[in-house]
Design goal:
Layout: H1 2-24, E1 30-40, E2 45-55, E3 58-63, E4 73-84, E5 86-91, H2 99-102, H3 106-112, H4 115-131, E6 134-139, H5 147-156, E7 164-167, E8 171-173, E9 193-195, H6 199-211, E10 217-220, H7 230-242, E11 247-251, H8 254-263, E12 267-270, H9 276-284, E13 288-290, H10 301-317, H11 336-341, H12 344-349, H13 354-361, H14 363-369, E14 386-389, E15 405-408, E16 411-414
Parallel strand pairs: 1-4, 5-6, 6-7, 8-9, 10-11, 11-12, 12-13
Antiparallel strand pairs: 1-2, 2-3, 4-14, 14-15, 15-16
Length: 415
């Protein structure tokens, strides 16, 4: 009997494979979106009464006179403003600090939450981000033992819904990373950080991350009394670029940001102690600032004032900026997405015009993440990552908190 069953299985296997293929690769579906207003964040211009024809995962055609095929599903957004999906260039989907459990310290989070659990957190946080209009994120570390790679692959393979993820793998740092360890417990920072102090360790850490699925490299420059020098950082930038990926540098101090700006990293994360001279140097060397300007809800009034002041100065100087949040906490009545979108408050307080805030949330971030050939723009051939808001964000940026429609890779997520 077992032999007969085995023969039957092998006879039916091709038919089964064809069935699975037909289910996983259906004929491209047509969706026609009627956009009352269509906003191009790059130019800040808005066109009226446009049709976006989506075929499968991509935009096929856009215009005022696009013919709608009879078989197309029609989405009527005539009373809304349609624009590209948003980006968060600094997030931690696979880590959630629970205040009454973790004492507000993510060191406890990393000890308590195993990698599998954190991957599941990533699914939930990713879906929350998508619901708030964030269709692409840069997951910038603190994901245990490569939970960020697992999350990215699961989204790409269609097992779960979530934003496009560009992930860092394990953060590279001088000994100790962002923790203070005890001599008898030297391993408590594993696998949260890869300690790299010599050039060989730096090269090996970069290669390990790439081997295990990282799509860019993140380093911590300055959370110990010893920090990476400009030459150290320059070496790691060269190693990352030689492998075809970019490098982001966490900088919490003036000295760290100065070294990163001098080395010409692709992005400085945080940089809240940057002087005007630091910002000028970063601008000169083509560095993008991802400032993570915390709201009062997630910091305090004094700290928030510092963040807003640095953002105001950075905008005045004209350094390229991308929107990033660094949200990693759970709060009652909030999701990861609602906490992230609330950061537009800081940009408003800093006096950044809505058009420039939108560029930071779309085209600037897309270029920083290296996905601008695929995402960040509403053009034929681009991925159909599309959102809609009740009002025009160039006239009222707060309308981004009320995203009413989300499409990701041609699939309607929220309507």
């Amino acid at each position: 009997m077992s032999i007969r069953i085995a023969r039957l299985f092998f006879l039916l296997l091709p038919l089964f494979a064809m069935s699975v293929q037909s289910q996983t690769n259906p004929a491209p579906r047509l969706v026609a979106i009627k956009a009352g207003k269509l906003l191009d964040p790059e130019t800040g211009k808005t066109a009226v009464n446009q049709i976006i024809l989506v075929e499968g995962k991509r935009i096929k055609e856009i215009g005022g006179n696009v013919a709608i095929p009879a078989e197309a599903k029609v989405v009527d957004l005539s009373n809304a403003t349609v624009l590209p999906g948003l980006f968060d260039a600094h997030t931690h989907l696979c880590m959630t600090v629970i205040p009454n459990r973790d004492h507000g310290d993510y060191f406890f989070t990393t000890l308590l939450d195993p990698t599998g659990y954190r991957a599941i957190e990533g699914v939930a946080n990713g879906m929350a981000m998508l619901q708030s209009g964030f269709t692409t994120v840069r997951d910038i570390g603190n994901a245990g033992n490569y939970a960020d790679t697992d999350l990215r692959m699961a989204i790409e393979d269609g097992w779960v819904q979530g934003p496009t993820v560009v992930n860092a793998g394990i953060i590279i740092a001088p000994y100790g990373g962002q923790f203070h360890l005890q001599p008898e417990k030297k391993d408590l920072a594993t696998p949260e950080y890869l300690f790299a102090d010599s050039r060989d360790e730096m090269r090996k850490a970069i290669r390990q991350n790439l081997h295990f699925g990282a799509k860019f490299i993140k380093i911590v420059v300055d959370d110990q009394q010893y920090i990476y020098s400009a030459d150290d950082i320059r070496f790691m930038v060269a190693e990352a670029h030689a492998a075809g990926v970019k490098l982001a540098a966490h900088c919490w101090t003036h000295a760290g940001a100065r070294n990163a700006a001098e080395a010409g990293v692709d992005s400085i994360e945080h940089g809240f102690q940057m002087t005007d001279e630091d910002l000028q140097l970063a601008k000169k060397n083509g560095v993008t600032l991802v400032g993570t300007e915390f709201t009062e809800k997630l910091s305090n009034a004094a700290e928030h004032k510092i963040w807003v002041d640095r953002l105001r100065r950075a905008y005045k100087i004209g350094i390229n900026m991308a929107f990033g949040t660094d949200v990693d906490v759970a709060m009652p009545g909030e999701t990861r997405g609602t906490l992230a979108i609330d950061y537009i408050q800081s940009w408003t307080e800093a006096g950044v015009p809505a058009t420039d805030t939108l560029r930071a949330m779309t085209v600037n971030a897309a270029r920083l993440l290296g996905v601008d050939k695929e995402r960040g723009f509403l053009k034929p051939g681009m991925a159909a990552d599309i959102i809609a808001t009740p009002e025009n964000p160039t006239e009222n940026i707060q309308t981004l908190k009320k995203v009413s429609f989300v499409m990701k890779d041609g699939a309607i997520i929220k309507q």
